[in-house]
Amino acid sequence: MKPIIAIIFLILLITSSLFALNIITTINPYYLLLKEITAETDNVTLLIEPGQNPHIYSPNVEDIRKLSSADLIVANGFELESFLTEKLDWLERSGKRVIFVSSYVDKVLRSSSDSTPNEDHINPHIWLGISLLTKYIIPGLTKDLMKIEPSKANLYTENAEKLIDNLKEIYKNLSEYFLPFAGKKILMSHPSFYYFFRDFGIGTVSLFEGHGDEPTISELKDIIKAAKSGEYIAAFGEYQQNNKSIEIV
């Protein structure tokens, strides 16, 4: 009897591994989201390690091999992974499943009057907006996973709902905390947290939009003047960015 049980267990183990999707995400936020949604029934791996800058990340030969062997690639889009875009587009044209998370929010952001100061360029840091996560990104990822692996539809849906509920609870708590600061502004070195603070009615001003950009002396003087007048309630830098200007302010 024991050998039969062992054989059945082995068959189940092999079968489950055969139906596990090999998913590669370009950045850590989507890696974490998909680990939650799939409950680790699929193999989720990360391409760009935390601390590395996706804006300037250039793939090596091993990265290309990983991308080519994946069942599904999940990228941000909106030109975040600019050095990967050409390769991802080529893989998609070759029949590889590539999800650009930007496709879930592109329409709603372009129709929003305050989505970005430049209508030709949309702020790519969409994963930091809790409302974008709960309304569009998590539901979008879940729906696409269900299309690829219908047998796990219930699992994906249940885990996504739990994740959304947890984020809504976080949003509720943060809303109470940030309420006194609604209508105020925060100075940032880079516009990464634009969507996060927008959810709570807090404006943001960035010292530079791109990478390698620096404010001019005239612009820096104006920002310092505004800071001295109390226009900003806080100033934030990022360890991935050049924080010299924010430190001067």
Quaternary state reads single chain
Question: What is the spatial order of strands in the main beta sheet?
Answer: 2-1-3-4
Averaging pLDDT over every residue, what do you get? 87
Main beta sheet = 4 strands, parallel
Number of domains: 2
Proportion of beta-strand residues: 5-15%
CATH class designation of the largest domain = Alpha Beta
Regions with little confidence, pLDDT below 50 for 5+ residues: 8-18
The arrangement of helices and strands along the chain is HEHEHEHEHHHEHEHEH
Find the count of extended strands (DSSP E, 2+ residues). Answer: 7
> First CA to last CA: what distance?
75 Å
- Helix % is 40-55%
Structural class of the helices, strands and pairings?
alpha/beta
Question: CATH H level of the largest domain: which superfamily?
Answer: Nitrogenase molybdenum iron protein domain
| Tally of helical segments | 10
Second CATH tier, the architecture of the largest domain? 3-Layer(aba) Sandwich
CATH topology of the largest domain: Rossmann fold
Task: Give the overall shape.
Answer: globular
Radius of gyration: 21 Å
Describe this structure in words.
The protein has 249 residues and is α/β, with parallel strands linked by helices. The chain has two domains: 21-175, 3-Layer(aba) Sandwich (Rossmann fold); 182-248, Nitrogenase molybdenum iron protein domain (Rossmann fold, 3-Layer(aba) Sandwich). It contains ten helices and seven strands. The protein has helices spanning 2-18, 28-38, 61-69, 85-93, 102-110, 130-148, 153-178, 194-198, 217-228, 244-248, and strands spanning 22-25, 43-46, 72-75, 97-100, 185-188, 203-206, 232-236. The strands form two sheets. Strands 2-1-3-4 form a four-stranded parallel β-sheet, with helices on both faces. Strand 1, helix 2 (28-38) and strand 2 form a beta-alpha-beta unit. The N and C termini lie far apart (75 Å). Residues 8-18 have low confidence and may be disordered.
